[in-house]
Design a protein that fits this description.
The chain is mostly beta strands. The chain has strands spanning about 1-5, 10-15, 20-25, 35-40, 45-50, 55-60, 65-70, 75-80, 90-100, 100-105, 110-115.
Length: about 120
Amino acid sequence: QVQLVESGGGLVQAGGSLRLSCAASGSTFSITTMAWYRQGPGKQRELVAAITSVGSKNYADSVKGRFTISRDNAKNTVYLQMNSLKPEDTAVYYCNARKIGSSYWGQGTQVTVSS
């Protein structure tokens, strides 16, 4: 099993920045992709950004140029730097870690962007 703990959410004004962190513990060997998803009010959960074990990244179109995902494999931690935040970025942000045949989720952290 893999446990994921997110931190760094909060309330920020539009145009501001936040940095989310997600620390993995437990059976972390062979984790491949780590990712951030979000679920806004009344919306489905969507992929925000993902990074593979060798550093390949992909982003949702809505966050390209504003968000940056990074990963510290030695610390089993993935980060999401969020800049130029918009009210539509308001959501619960979830960390996800994948192994072949398994997927793990954190409990989520709330990000609220005020206009």
